[in-house]
Amino acid sequence: MQLPEPGATSSEEPPAQARGPLMIIGGAEDKLRRRTILNRFVAASGGTEARIALLPTASSLGDEVVEVYDALFRKLGAAEVMPVRPESREDAHDPDLVGIIEKATGIFMTGGNQLKLSAIICGTPLGDAIVAARERGAVVAGTSAGASIQSSHMVAFGTGGATAKQRMTQVAAGLGLVQSAVIDQHFDQRNRYGRLLMIVSQSPQLLGIGVDEDTCAVVTSQGDHEMLTVLGRGAVTIFDPARMATNAYEAKRSSPLLASGVVLHMLPAGAQFDLTTRTLVKPEEQVSDEDAAEVLEAQRDLRHLARDIAAADKSPSALRRRLARTRGPRPAHGPDPQDGAAPE
Amino acid sequence: MQLPEPGATSSEEPPAQARGPLMIIGGAEDKLRRRTILNRFVAASGGTEARIALLPTASSLGDEVVEVYDALFRKLGAAEVMPVRPESREDAHDPDLVGIIEKATGIFMTGGNQLKLSAIICGTPLGDAIVAARERGAVVAGTSAGASIQSSHMVAFGTGGATAKQRMTQVAAGLGLVQSAVIDQHFDQRNRYGRLLMIVSQSPQLLGIGVDEDTCAVVTSQGDHEMLTVLGRGAVTIFDPARMATNAYEAKRSSPLLASGVVLHMLPAGAQFDLTTRTLVKPEEQVSDEDAAEVLEAQRDLRHLARDIAAADKSPSALRRRLARTRGPRPAHGPDPQDGAAPE
């Protein structure tokens, strides 16, 4: 485990700020053109020093999927791409596989069958290592099935449709990187309003998070708040059912559900949402999409820098290169107490 | 115009209560089996004394549509079915056609192209006669296009999809039977969340009302409140954007919209919603679906009875038959001050 040494940074960084970002991708992320999301993932994982653990377990096309992402991540500059492919809970106890997660700076879980993925890794040393990796600052990303598994409660499978109906979907337990939430993906494209609304109707303490294709919810810790920023082509839809009225506890068979008073947030690229207070961050208080990218990179760089200083394993020129990459003194959510970026 | 004589009923009925109900049907209403919605329409229009004006103008299959509904309404007991088929604004000034509307107890507008329907009838004597018919107590019903046209703001056309995107739909002016609202239909089946949300994002003073297929929003006036009750197989979805934050005034091209803080109500059969206060009517305060049917019929019957007494044109046996049909003294929202039905 590569936790940064306490005291390695000049200010007292609360432990939550050492957490790496989550990247929750709604599937079908652009792999050919701008590659906005995948670029962000590699950059946040350390760019040319990224060591990426790639988990294709959800997919039935394991080898091909590994080939595609391996080629992509290397093309985008990653130093190393290491497949981690447990096919049983037994495999997920293998210290070699766990070791790869432990030294990764970025973890990427592919699409496929999230119930297979969760059934194999949740509650195993490998699953625990993913949770720990985020705590020590690694990026945890996943697309489609790899997005679903990140929430505490996971859509196992179900049917599409805009109207919430009893029994239209099933819930299983996910990795819990996002607590008190359920994440759904391909949200617009597969018309999954209804099933996400069904789940939050039955569990009104959960936030429902629906992510469109080629769209990413980036979740970062800022102090004791979890902030969600949207990246990509579509939108992230959030259902907050905290004050809802529902008949989900008594609705029969597959009848449409009553779900009244759900607060809906539809968030396009650049929108920022405070998952802790469940409110939109006003645009004037908000870090722009571009700034957010810089912040992510800067955070990452600063974290590396702190680690490197502690380990004294880098030449001064490497440090200079890194500092140059942060593009000036704006580590908005890093150790610098002058937080928050002014609008440009 | 057949306005009931003032003083014809024993108590002072406020003018709003003389209004007939609206029946806003999301398309594809069941015509073969239980026919819940169509049955309700014929009953509310007076049952065996219903004189139904049928407007197939939205449809490109005018004659066939007339045949189908004519046969259906007669089978369900209507006394008369009178086609009213203006094919131009000129036609919509024809006193003969307007006369049919004026003597109808129920008006039914078919599906098809709502922009054709609105372009032909809105702002003509025929369109005005439909609005006036409701004020004097006639039922105004419409399915699909015939539902859309009932709101003040009408979805003209657009594309499907769950995520709201700029320019995905166009708005035109409707009949305005439901003010400060926009109605969409085939809501679940054609995945119209996005476009309805786009419209309310651009016009946050409007309530967005999405009606599923084989589902009906029955709107009645109760004092100075407009109440919506759901009938049928699907749900009615309501977006209340009053407190939303949005970027719809500046979003470019077809980009996904920000729409944060929209209050969502998904209402299955039996649910009741106060359109005036924009709140769910709690189940314990609510008139059950069955009771609502009786109330509608009883209201109708009482209104007829009052008219008949005033006109003294009925035999005592006809009056007795009618009274029997009201199934006991429960005119919950009629002149009887003992309002509200006890659960059975």
Automatic annotation (TrEMBL), chains A, B:
This is Cyanophycinase. The keyword Hydrolase applies. It comes from Nocardioides bigeumensis. Exopeptidase that catalyzes the hydrolytic cleavage of multi-L-arginyl-poly-L-aspartic acid (cyanophycin; a water-insoluble reserve polymer) into aspartate-arginine dipeptides. It catalyses: [L-4-(L-arginin-2-N-yl)aspartate](n) + H2O = [L-4-(L-arginin-2-N-yl)aspartate](n-1) + L-4-(L-arginin-2-N-yl)aspartate. It comes from the Bacteria. PANTHER family: CYANOPHYCINASE. Keywords: Hydrolase, Protease, Serine protease. InterPro entries: Class_I_gatase-like, Peptidase_S51, Peptidase_S51_cyanophycinase. Residues 319-330 have a biased composition (Basic residues). Belongs to the NDK family. Its EC number is 3.4.15.6. Pfam families: Peptidase_S51.
